[in-house]
Design a protein that fits this description.
The chain is mainly α. It has eight helices and two strands, in the order αββααααααα. Helix 1 packs across helix 2, helix 2 runs antiparallel to helix 4 and helix 2 packs across helix 8. It is globular, with a radius of gyration of 21 Å.
């Protein structure tokens, strides 16, 4: 009817089955980046001198070693959701979760095993890779919540509005997923709950700095890498024979 406020139907969306293309390679890269990042996240790092504005610490920039590589996990997570859909993205996310848990339990067993005579590095090994409950719980909870939200938001936008404007769903899903991930990881690992899980907490101002810097950094990295993400998404879509 003329004059009615009807929104045009979105263009059809498509997803690859993952059975004949490069799905397994994308999942392997995704899980590998996740595991490496989780090991790196055991170290807090900072850059810059101490600068405060109104009593709030602006510098130094405080983050963890996982920040070097972890944003790539979200780029690969975007690729999985965009090309293969929510179900197959969820399968990859759960696979990463299970293997990260297995990695943590393996480190627990290795740390508990008696060192060989003459091997002097047992304390150092345990300090870096030993089972740290707060880091393990924070990493797993933050990762699972963040990645599932990232995939769900991306697929929801694509199904609702069609194939166009890829950058909108990439950025929006990253904002939601990275915020949940960073907030949960920082709060559990270094907030008051960290004390309950056998660690120490940091003061509230430093914790806020850590959360804000981590979130802004990760989102900024993904925005900067949007051209690369576009290129990877297009290349994988071309290599998936059943992507319509």
């Amino acid at each position: 009817m003329t004059g009615t406020n009807t929104r045009p139907a979105p263009s059809p969306t498509a997803y690859a089955s993952g059975g004949r293309g490069v799905y397994d390679l994308v999942v392997a890269a995704f899980v590998g980046v996740l595991l490496i990042s989780n090991i790196g996240a055991t170290k807090l790092i900072q850059f810059g001198p101490t600068v405060e504005v109104g009593g709030f610490p602006v510098l130094p920039i405080i983050t963890d070693g996982g920040a070097f590589l972890f944003p790539l996990a979200y780029i690969l997570g975007d690729v999985l959701a965009e090309v293969y859909g929510l179900r197959r993205a969820r399968r990859a996310i759960v696979t990463g979760f299970v293997l990260a848990a297995v990695m943590s339990l393996t480190f627990l067993a290795v740390d508990a095993a008696p060192p060989a005579d003459g091997w002097p590095n047992d304390d150092a090994w345990g300090a870096v890779l030993g089972f740290v409950p707060r880091i393990v719980v924070a990493s797993l909870v933050g990762y699972l919540a963040g990645q599932l939200l990232n995939a769900r938001v991306l697929v929801w936008i694509k199904d609702r509005y069609g194939e166009g404007r890829l950058w909108v769903r990439l950025v929006t899903s990253t904002l939601v997923g990275e915020f949940a991930d960073t907030l949960l990881f920082c709060s559990i690992a270094f907030g008051p709950l960290g004390v309950v899980l056998g660690g120490g907490s940091i003061d509230a101002a430093t914790l806020v700095n850590y959360i804000v810097v981590g979130f802004v950094y990760k989102v900024t990295v993904e925005v900067i890498f949007l051209p690369l993400t576009y290129a990877v998404v297009r290349a994988i879509k071309r290599h998936e024979p059943d992507y319509a």
